[in-house]
């Protein structure tokens, strides 16, 4: 009987205590009701004009299966699509360039999101530009150390060329002959190695076709990052609305069992006081 009385007293006391909202709940409300900032879509829509690696010549295919009123009196639309993993805004799973590392479906959610670090090189970018260690340390000199669990996004401005395949890839060739003629910015092996050795980041994204620049023949930035299970986001859309620091980014891919990548919906939440 004493236990029942004590339990009743404790329960009553808790019920009467004023609710104290915690910062986590408050932060979550700000994200989901939009009062604390805004959502930014970092994804190019998939269509017949979506840009793929030049050896993936089939592109994005959308076939109409049904569209219109049915005999039952309701409207019905249905399609099927086909796509290579690595085209449009997409995920690179670490297995893409690192044997034994995560496949698409093995990537934990915590590796697909985090505080965004936006390294802006638009003022000095060239078609063969390599993001350097100096670019990363200059960002830190201005904004502090790259935080643990960050998603590093490189803004080259190349997304403004999206829709013009030749301007975006640097060549109008298709198939294997095009690969040697690609020209677009990327991340240097040294910069990738610096991130691995000095900072604990979960993902690296870029607004170009590849983490490595177009003229890369050995994809060393891919290898360096992916063997550490750091994932890649490629062909990101316009990053200009994101501040250098203070926003939160997530990239959720189609979950393909044993996949090396897949279509990605990348978004960022920018708090009202960020920047």
Q: Can you offer a commentary on this structure?
A:
The protein has 275 residues and is α/β, with parallel strands linked by helices. It has a single domain (38-45, 85-271), classed as Putative cyclase (Glucose Oxidase, domain 1, 3-Layer(bba) Sandwich). The protein has helices at residues 2-16, 23-33, 133-143, 165-169, 176-179, 189-198, 220-226; strands spanning 37-41, 61-69, 75-82, 90-92, 113-120, 130-131, 150-155, 186-187, 201-206, 231-234, 245-253, 261-271. Strands 4-10-9-7-5-11-12 form a seven-stranded mixed beta barrel. Strands 2-3 form a two-stranded antiparallel ribbon. The protein is globular. The N and C termini lie far apart (59 Å). Mean pLDDT is 91; it is low at 1-26.
Summed up, the helix count is 7
Category by helix and strand content: alpha/beta
Strand order of the largest sheet: 4-10-9-7-5-11-12
Number of strands: 12
CATH architecture, by name, is: 3-Layer(bba) Sandwich
Mean pLDDT: 91
CATH superfamily: Putative cyclase
Alpha carbon gyration radius: 23 Å
Distance between the termini: 59 Å
Q: What is the third-level CATH name, the topology?
A: Glucose Oxidase, domain 1
Strand content: 25-35%
Tell me the domain tally: 1
The helix fraction, in percent, is: 10-25%
């Amino acid at each position: 009987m004493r236990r029942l009385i004590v339990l009743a007293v404790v329960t009553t006391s808790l019920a009467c205590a004023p609710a104290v909202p915690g910062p986590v709940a408050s932060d979550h409300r700000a994200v989901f009701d939009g009062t604390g900032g805004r959502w930014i879509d970092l994804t190019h829509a998939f269509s017949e004009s979506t840009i793929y690696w030049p050896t993936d010549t089939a592109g994005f295919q959308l076939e109409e299966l049904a569209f219109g009123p049915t005999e039952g009196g309701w409207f019905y639309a249905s399609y099927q699509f086909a796509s290579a993993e690595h085209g449009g805004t997409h995920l690179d799973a670490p297995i893409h360039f690192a044997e034994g590392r995560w496949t698409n479906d093995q990537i934990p959610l915590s590796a697909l999101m985090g505080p965004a670090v936006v390294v802006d090189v638009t003022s000095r970018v060239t078609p063969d530009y390599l993001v350097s260690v100096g670019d990363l340390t200059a960002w830190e000199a201005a904004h502090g150390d790259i935080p643990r669990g960050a998603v590093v996004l490189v803004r080259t401005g190349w997304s403004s060329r999206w829709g013009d395949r030749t301007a975006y890839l640097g060549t109008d060739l298709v198939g294997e002959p095009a690969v040697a003629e690609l020209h677009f910015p990327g991340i240097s092996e040294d910069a990738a190695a610096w991130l691995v050795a000095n900072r604990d980041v979960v993902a690296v994204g870029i607004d170009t076709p590849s983490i490595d620049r177009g003229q890369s023949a050995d994809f060393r930035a891919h290898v360096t990052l992916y063997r550490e299970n750091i994932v890649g986001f490629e062909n990101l859309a316009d990053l200009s609305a994101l501040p250098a620091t203070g926003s939160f980014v997530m990239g959720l891919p189609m979950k393909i069992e044993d996949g090396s990548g897949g279509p990605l919906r990348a978004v960022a939440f920018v708090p009202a006081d960020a920047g």
